[in-house]
Amino acid sequence: MKKRLKLAGWLGLILVGVAFDGWSYCVRRSAERRYFAECLFSREEARRVQQYFVIFTQGIIPARLPFGALLQESGIDPSTALRLVASAQNVFDLRHVRAGNRFAVGRSVLGELRAVRYWIDPERVLNIALHDNEIHSEIESIPSQTFIVGVAGGVHGSLFEGVLDAGEKPELALRLADIFGWDLDFYTDPRPGDTFRAVVEKKRLANGDMISYGRILAAEYVNGDRTFQAVLFHDPSGNPAYYTPEGKSMKKAFLHSPLKFAAPITSHFSASRFHPILKEYRPHLGIDYAAPVGTPVQAIGDGRVIFAGPKGGAGNLIEIRHANDYTTYYMHLSRILVKAGERVQQGQRIGLVGMTGLATGPHLDFRVQKHGQFVNFLRLPLPPAEPVAKSAWPEFCAARDSALTQMREASSQREAALATIASPAASGQTAVSSKQ
Length: 436
Fold this sequence. Notes:
Strand content: 25-35%
CATH class of the largest domain: Alpha Beta
Order of helices and strands: HEHHEEEEEHHEEEEEEEEEEEEEEEEH
Structural class: alpha+beta
CATH architecture of the largest domain: Roll
CATH topology of the largest domain: Nuclear Transport Factor 2, Chain: A
Number of strands: 22
Largest sheet: 10 strands, antiparallel
Shape: elongated
């Protein structure tokens, strides 16, 4: 009996040992399988990283450097750079690459070239991708959202400064000057105490950064005791256009000035003026605007260029023929941006201020001829364009009322916000006074 019990005990121990060895073998095999699986995963992950993971090195486009030369300076061999340029040229004219914009070169972890990116503007990026020795180029849109906001501010010096003081970008000042440029000369008319308001679309990236302004739905400029309001609508051809609340076109046949921003008038239209160079009295049949060399000059109205080039004492000169037998002259330019025979539009940049010809300093000598006779531009009535058509009046009234309501509400919200910011200080002063 004892022998049987002893034998059974040994058999039990043997079975336990066998079971343990089996379990240990299973655990070991499972661990080995996991190890080999992790090795395979790591190798596959490394392969994916090498193939798909791209490290971008960013830079800024320098001045006067062709795109192909820029790629070579970034470490791309000449033959590959030529292929990248040829591919990109199919979707974007590389002559329009601008100094100061961002670009980036992307490489794999092993240093192999994978992509080149160029930011055309805040809303578009040129992407040149390489894969299996093939190159594909496309222009990608950068996602953004559009918000309608109210903007308001005061003018203490110029509209440009007032817009900056309101926390906005210079672009908005240019846009407002374009809207009111037929009624106001933003060189001479702004005065301390003027105010402006606008309802404008702002485009923002996903991170909240503003990239540009969209449409200005309504705008107002108060110049002393004069108030100018503009509402966005469309002209009879369906193109965007601004009108007064009464339906009159803001656009005139001519702009109020051949320049956009503050340039003092150094010489007026006169039948007898002492010429600073010729040292004699003679007629001065134009208006002299003092401005730095390189200041953009704009066509005051639609027309055709009938002369563009140097002409004696006028220096570099542009002559534009307009409707109703008007001709405008832009003299002493440092650079001419149009050519004879070319059609130009109102507000188009046609040249740059200079001091060519008989000039003692940089300025624009601007002249207007009507029916062959020179006239004083500052006293010239500027006829308006067509008003809102009667058939479009109900649609215009709806757009006008909505836009002006938004502008009033936005202005009220801004004033309330400013009052809220100021109120803690005011309430603190009241509390101190009551304790005293």
